[in-house]
């Protein structure tokens, strides 16, 4: 299901700020017998004086909302499902994990990745283009996960609190400003961090080496090739060597020669394994290039030809990529002719079902999409992609009551997914259910940090509901929750 990408003026560029944002904090215990090399050192616990474990999820929630409201996040259900499955496969083999992780993709052609409070990891879409295989992509995620589990950001904040008049609220305010507006953010950092940036860079280099070391262990335990990490780092170094401007990733993740050689030496001491990229990785890569690629880096015929000469998974990805090319060119018949035989061989494949649904909807054939999705039991499936496609098809087919029932279940199970609330808003609005429309819009506003607007919309929904009704009580209770959230967030807004 291709939903409208919400872009902003923000070019998600993190330079000096990235040295802070990249050095991250979090974790909930998963492994009963942790490798001592992975366990958090005692100095990590001292960071509780500045930032407690309980504070991290709250701060992460605040920053995620700001990110949704200001950055060009890719709200693609297929890609979000894939990156979170891959990320959480790695998290399951990490230690010192104290709470759930969430993974996001920003539509940005600059190579970078970063993490921040509460186990939130962000990849730039260019990472998919740059990664030759799934192990290399996993190596980036493992590195960022390790920044989090080792509480690097909390430790950096504690260090700054001891060695300068800088307060952690000031640092966080500058980071937030840089997320929303790179130029203003850099100005904020220059003023706030006067004279301390070199110390942060040095501290970050130590963090990078530790994240490499821990990340390699996580990568190996998760069944990926450990050599993929130094191989990916070598690609970054090579690109920097032959380019007038280094990749953004090297600004937020410094790469001295010692770091690269250390990563390679450690990987060489681990058993080398041959790992084939999953079908989902290959589909995700061609989807990123085909749906979100730039003029400079599109999904090319040469790349698809290369895939077509590979193994069966790569051949499937080549066919899927060609179908995307036809779809984007509005050559729907050609796209359908590729996809339908593939779906016949794999009736439950969500990548094929999703693209065929988009084709049907663009051709005003919603009943055909509904029939296909009902055959796949999409309405009762636990798969988020299928549920969203079903709801979208119901709306386009004017089966609005069915759409609303499905979306109320979906938003209850996935309250942090903007896609569900956007579709629910469409569904109830077309039925003329004004209070429900306002309530759904309010949730969308809350997810992007616009709590004042959210409360205002819920107040209007309450006023338009029957006095004493269950709906009115529900809206009033939600208003109370959001006001409490505003109170918790106030300390970060002041920063």
UniProtKB/TrEMBL annotation:
Protein name as annotated: Beta-barrel assembly-enhancing protease
Pfam families listed in its UniProt record: Peptidase_M48, TPR_19
Listed cofactors: Zn(2+)
InterPro entries in UniProt: Mito/Outer_Membr_Metalloprot, Peptidase_M48, Protease_BepA, TPR-like_helical_dom_sf
Keywords for the protein's UniProt record, in alphabetical order: Hydrolase, Metal-binding, Metalloprotease, Periplasm, Protease, Signal, Zinc
Signal peptide location: 1-34
Protein location: Periplasm
SUPFAM superfamilies, per database record: TPR-like
Main location: periplasm
Annotated positions binding Zn(2+): 143, 147, 208
Cofactor note: Binds 1 zinc ion per subunit.
Role this protein plays: Functions as both a chaperone and a metalloprotease. Maintains the integrity of the outer membrane by promoting either the assembly or the elimination of outer membrane proteins, depending on their folding state.
UniProt EC number: 3.4.-.-
């Amino acid at each position: 299901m291709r939903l409208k990408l919400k872009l902003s003026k923000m070019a998600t560029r993190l330079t000096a700020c990235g040295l802070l944002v990249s050095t991250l904090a979090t974790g909930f215990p998963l492994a009963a017998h942790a490798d001592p090399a992975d366990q958090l050192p005692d100095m990590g616990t001292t960071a509780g004086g500045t930032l407690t474990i309980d504070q991290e999820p709250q701060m992460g929630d605040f920053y995620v909302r700001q990110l949704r409201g200001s950055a060009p996040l890719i709200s693609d259900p297929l890609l979000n499902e894939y990156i979170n499955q891959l990320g959480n496969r790695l998290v399951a083999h990490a230690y010192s994990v104290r709470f759930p992780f969430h993974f996001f993709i920003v539509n940005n052609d600059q190579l970078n990745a970063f993490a921040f409070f509460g186990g939130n990891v962000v990849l730039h879409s260019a990472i998919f283009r740059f990664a030759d295989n799934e192990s290399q992509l996993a190596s980036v995620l493992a590195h960022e996960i390790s920044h989090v589990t080792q509480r690097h950001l909390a430790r950096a904040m504690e260090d700054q609190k001891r060695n300068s008049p800088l307060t952690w609220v000031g640092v966080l305010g500058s980071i937030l400003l840089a997320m929303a507006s790179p130029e203003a953010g850099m100005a904020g950092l220059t003023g706030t961090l006067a004279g301390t940036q070199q110390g942060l860079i040095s501290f970050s280099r130590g963090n990078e080496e530790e994240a490499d070391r821990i990340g390699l262990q996580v990568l190996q335990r998760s069944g990926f090739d450990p050599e993929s990490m130094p191989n990916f780092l070598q690609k970054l170094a090579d690109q920097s060597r032959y380019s007038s401007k280094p990749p953004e990733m090297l600004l937020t993740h410094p790469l001295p020669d010692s770091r690269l050689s250390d990563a390679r030496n450690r990987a060489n001491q681990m058993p080398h394994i041959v790992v084939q990229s999953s079908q989902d990785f290959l589909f995700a890569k061609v989807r990123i290039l085909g749906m979100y690629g730039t003029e400079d880096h599109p999904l090319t015929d040469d790349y698809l030809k290369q895939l077509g000469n590979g193994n069966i998974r790569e051949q499937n990805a080549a066919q899927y990529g060609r179908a995307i090319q036809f779809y984007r060119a509005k050559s729907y018949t050609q796209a359908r002719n590729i996809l339908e035989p593939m779906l016949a061989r794999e009736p439950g494949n969500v990548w094929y079902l999703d693209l065929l649904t988009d084709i049907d909807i663009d051709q005003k054939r919603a009943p055909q999409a509904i029939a296909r999705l009902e055959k796949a039991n999409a309405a009762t499936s636990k798969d988020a992609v299928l549920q969203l496609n079903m709801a979208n098809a119901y709306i386009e087919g004017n089966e609005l009551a069915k759409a609303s029932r499905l979306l109320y279940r979906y938003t209850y199970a996935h309250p942090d997914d903007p896609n569900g609330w956007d579709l629910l808003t469409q569904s109830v609005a077309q039925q003329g259910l004004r209070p429900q429309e306002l309530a759904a819009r309010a949730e969308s506003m809350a997810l992007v940090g616009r709590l004042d607007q959210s409360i205002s919309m819920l107040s209007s929904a309450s006023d338009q509901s029957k006095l004493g009704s269950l709906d009115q009580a529900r809206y009033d209770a939600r208003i109370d929750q959001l006001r409490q959230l505003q109170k918790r967030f106030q300390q970060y807004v002041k920063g």
